[in-house]
Amino acid sequence: AHHNLGVCLRIENRPADAIPHYKAARERGLDRAELYHNLGNALADVGNAGEAVDAYRASLARNPRNRDCHRNLSSLLWQQEMTGDHLDSYRQALLQDPTAASLRLDFAMALNQQGMYEEAEKVLAQGLGHGDSSELKSLLAYTFENQGRWPEALQLHAAAVALPGASPNLFVSFARALLAAGRPDEAVIHAKHGAMQMPFNQRALAYLTLCWRMLGDERDEILNDYEHLVGVYDVPVPSGFSGAAAFNSRLNEVLDTIHTGKRPPPEQTVRGGTQTSGDLFVRREPEIASLVDGLRSCIREYIDRLPGHPEHPMLSRRSESFDFSASWSVRLQSAGFHTMHIHPLGWISSAYYVHVPPEVAGPAAKGGELKFGEPDIDIGPKGNPRRYVQPAVGRLVLFPSYMWHGTVPFDSVQPRTTVAFDVVPVVKR
C-alpha cells in the first residue's frame, strides 16, 4: 500500500510526498526491483541525484533486464556529470546475460549517441552471434553510416528488411540511408512501405516527403507548406501581469528551479544546454498553468484555420479536441543549438520563447533562429533550409511534427529559454 500510494503521488507530480512512502515500504520488507526504480525516479525528480543513482543500481541488482532503469540511470549520470562511466550498467548486465537483445540495442544506440562507434559495432556483432535479428542488423548499419562505411551500411539495411517480421521503422531507416547515398528512386519504395504501415508516424512521413523533394514531386511542397503550416502567435498574457516581458520573467524564474541538469540528456537534440525531464505541464506552479491556458487558445486558433483534407497526413487528423502528449523546457547556452529533427509521435509541435538574449532578438539579431526544412542527412542543395523564424519573448511557433526543424547557434552571455510540447488529436467516440 505504501508503494502504490507513492506511485499515485508521483503521478500527481508530488515526488517529495512519494519518497517517504517508498522508504516506508522498504522498511516494512518490500524488496522488489520496482520499488527501487520508482524511488529512484522520485529522488531524481527532487534533485537528489546521489540517492537516485543508488536506488537505480539497487533496482538493477534485482532485475538487470529493466530497460527503463538502465536508461534513467545512464541519463542521470550523464546529465549530472557524475564520476564513472554512465553506461557501465549495460556492460555489466550483458556480461551476465549476453542474450538480452533489447538491452544490447539500447546500449548500442547509446554508444552511437556518444560517438563510440567501434564499441557499438562490437556490441552489435556479438549480439548477431547469438542469432539473426533485423533490429540488430539495422542498428549495425546505422553504426556503419556514422563511420562513413556506406556500402556496408546499405548491404546490412537490405538484409535487415529482408528478414521475416522486419518492422516498418526499419524500412524507413533503409530509406534514410538510400537518400543519404543519393538514391531517392530506391528510397521512396521503402519510405512508402513504412508510411503505409505507420500512417501517423511522423518519422516515416518526414523521409517520404524528403524522397519526394529529391524526385521533384509536388507532394513535398503540399505536405511541407512552410508558409501556411508554420503558425506564429503572440500568446495572451495572463491577468495580473503588465505584459509578456513581466510574465515570462516570472516564468523563467520558475523554470530556473526545474533545470537541474549540468548538460542535456544524451538522447536528445540539444547541444550546449539543458532540458527538463518528465512532463512539464503536469506541474502545479501557477505560472505554468497560466501558460498552458494561453497556449491552448493559440493551438485552437491554429487548428481552426487548418483546411480539411481527407488524404493529407496532417489535415485529415483535424479534430475538435486535442491534448498534450509531451512537454518540456530547453535552456541553451552560448553557441548552443538543436540538431535538425522531427517528433515521431506528435501531430503538432512547437517552440515557445520564455527568455531571448538581446543578441537574438530584434532586426539586428545574429543567430538563434528556428529553421525549417533542412534534414538530418546531407542531400546537397535540395536540403537547404526553407524558412526561418526569429525568436521573441512570448512568441509561439506551431508546425507539423513531421517538419524538419532545428536552431541556429548564437553567441551571448545570456541563455535562451524555451518551452516545447507536442499536441495530438483526441477523437471523441
Query: Which residues form runs of ≥5 with pLDDT under 50?
Result: none
Distance between the termini: 35 Å
Widest beta sheet: strand line-up: 1-7-4-9-3-2
**Counting H and I runs of at least 4 residues, what is the number of helices?**
16
Largest sheet: 6 strands, antiparallel
Proportion of residues in extended strands: 5-15%
What is the overall pLDDT average? 95
Number of strands: 9
Which term fits the overall shape? globular
Helix content: 40-55%
Q: Which structural traits does this protein have?
A:
single chain; 429 residues; alpha+beta; six-stranded antiparallel beta sheet; three-stranded antiparallel beta sheet; 9 strands; 14% strand
Q: What would you say this structure looks like, in words?
A:
The protein has 429 residues and is α+β, with helices and mostly antiparallel strands. It has helices at 2-11, 15-27, 33-45, 49-62, 67-79, 88-96, 101-113, 117-128, 134-146, 150-162, 168-180, 184-197, 202-215, 219-223, 244-256, 286-304; strands at residues 231-234, 270-275, 321-338, 348-355, 370-372, 387-389, 395-400, 405-407, 416-426. The strands form two sheets. It has a six-stranded antiparallel β-sheet. It has a three-stranded antiparallel β-sheet with strand order 6-5-8, with no helix packed on it. α1 packs antiparallel against α2. It is globular. The model has no long low-confidence stretch (mean pLDDT 95).
